[in-house]
Amino acid sequence: MFTGIIEELGTVSSIKKSSETIVLTIAASAILTDVKLGDSIAVNGVCLTVTSFAANQFTVDVMPETYMSTTLKELNVRSTVNLERAMAAGGRFGGHFVSGHVDGTGEIVYKRPEQNAIYYEIKMPQHLMMYFMMKGSVSIDGTSLTIFGVTEDTITVSLIPHTVAHTVLGAKGKGQHVNVECDMLAKYVGRMMHGVPSETNRKKELTYEFFEQNGF
């Protein structure tokens, strides 16, 4: 589990790609102070497992599902990435609940300054639009952000100067892709409302009639 508060910008120092897998070695410092084998680290919002590490770098494997459904396949040597360690139980919780399980990728359709902020409008896959709402939370490349604009196929978020300077999103522009993780609560509620398979492989629908019949 993560919070969407980026701890450090890392740099890809080595990348080994096959047809649908990647082995990434990433140079870092701050997040390695207490690292152990098997730890989870979010790389551009994708939860990955540390398979080896040294004083100034760590290595992770990217499996086919992650390769196909995230932007990690677009990385190259010297690419900059957002890094966050899994949240500590006793730490401050500054963002929102982020699982590191990316739901899809979006495309930046515009980027413009607005006083002390930078506005980004991001085109989203249609099947994800039901999970976005005004003032709701979203994770973009692992960064916890607040939505303040929603259309039929886009959302708009705003970055303050600190976020622009300390995350990879600040350097991205129109036409580039980002990893998107929808709010966890919205996904669970959406799944419940649209029905889930029962033991008999039928769907149990949650409708207004169901709630009325059960005293809601």
UniProtKB/TrEMBL annotation:
Q: What is its EC number?
A: 2.5.1.9
Pathway involvement of the protein, from the record = Cofactor biosynthesis; riboflavin biosynthesis; riboflavin from 2-hydroxy-3-oxobutyl phosphate and 5-amino-6-(D-ribitylamino)uracil: step 2/2
MF term (GO), any:
riboflavin synthase activity
Which windows of the sequence hold Lumazine-binding repeats?
Answer: 1-96, 97-193
Reply yes or no: does the keyword Transferase apply. Answer: yes
Keyword terms: Repeat, Riboflavin biosynthesis, Transferase
Catalytic reaction list = 2 6,7-dimethyl-8-(1-D-ribityl)lumazine + H(+) = 5-amino-6-(D-ribitylamino)uracil + riboflavin
Q: Which CDD domains match?
A: Riboflavin_synthase_like
Name the InterPro entries for this protein.
ATP_synth_asu-like_sf (IPR023366), Lumazine-bd (IPR001783), Lumazine-bd_dom (IPR026017), Riboflavin_synthase-like_b-brl (IPR017938)
Domain Lumazine-binding residue range list = 1-96, 97-193
| Enzyme category, top tier | transferase
Task: Tell me if Phosphoprotein is a UniProt keyword of this record.
Answer: no
Which Pfam family, any one, appears in the UniProt record? Answer: Lum_binding
UniProt function note:
Catalyzes the dismutation of two molecules of 6,7-dimethyl-8-ribityllumazine, resulting in the formation of riboflavin and 5-amino-6-(D-ribitylamino)uracil.
PANTHER family in UniProt: RIBOFLAVIN SYNTHASE, RIBOFLAVIN SYNTHASE ALPHA CHAIN
* Name of the protein this chain belongs to: Riboflavin synthase
In its UniProt entry, the species of origin is given as Fictibacillus iocasae
